[in-house]
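Hey, sorry to bother you again with one of my protein questions. A protein chain has come my way and I'm curious about its shape. I'm sending you its amino acid sequence along with the backbone structure tokens. I owe you a coffee for this, so here goes:
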Amino acid sequence: MRVVTNLVALCLILSACTTHTETNKAAVSFYYWRTIFKLTANERYALAQNGVSKLYVRYFDVALQQGQPVPLSPITFDEAPGDQHIIPVVYIRNEVMLQPALDVDDLVDKVLSYIQQINSTQNIVSDEIQIDCDWTLNSKEVYFKFIDLLKKKSNRKLSATIRLHQVKYFRNTGVPAVERGVLMYYNMGRIAPDSSNSIYDRETAQLYTASLKSYPLPLDIALPVFTWGIHVRNNTVIGLLNKVDETSFQEDDHFKMKEPPFFEVNDDIVKMGYYFEKGDRIKIESVRPDDLEEMIEDLSEAMTRQPAEIIFYDLDNFNLKHYQHENQFFQKISRTL
């Protein structure tokens, strides 16, 4: 009888441990960064396959025009979001926070009013707002005032994006008064004409990850799943080509892969709306599946608190095609943290 009792107790302990482990796994979410909300069949499949129930949707940008903050590129909904829980994201350019005599109270009211206008078109009820702003030492006082007022007036949870340098030097850059931060674990380097990867570089990342243990704000993680091209002429970067990869140029005789990650332009040509001169180079920057696994490995060693979510940037057919080698890939990545 004692053996049976002990076995039952052991099973209960193992069951409790299993439940605890499962409930502490980071959820999978995505950013949606297009100006028209309309999911493709492939995007819906990726959401369903990876158990995604939340989308962080960029509602609009805030920038300066004639010295005044204005909303730019607002999203429109061609379809209802369905079962997805929508979190509005507002990208605010740092120039807004640097504007002398900025009426912060008025800006908060306008941001909240515009969010509500968009929500009302689709009967969206959002319990959280996320603010994306790369604040600086010169703008932090105004930005933090904006965050405080937004939190008070919205009566909702707030989250904010956090860059790596803002983690390492938080005693100087400050910490916004939000419930959670989202560590943007990408765009780590300078967009340059050399062979470096500005999206992800492990050596650069490791200069900052040790600081995660002392950062006072709970952090979720944003990971990159995008690819772009860097247009180089005379060893100078002249433009950024969004949503291009190697396949964009491999079967075009006007371009030749010289040495990865570079294509060289053989003749003057207009392609995808861009003008390329003979001798120009295009550097492809991407994040491979094993890069994502490497990121998670490093973050799991560096972080003392379990993230609630891994948010992949961003949901798009073009991006998803690079990660279709394995079913439930994004869920697998999140479960290793």
The domain at 26-226+287-335 is CATH 3.20.20.80 (TIM Barrel). The mean pLDDT is 93. The first strand starts at residue 27 and ends at 32.
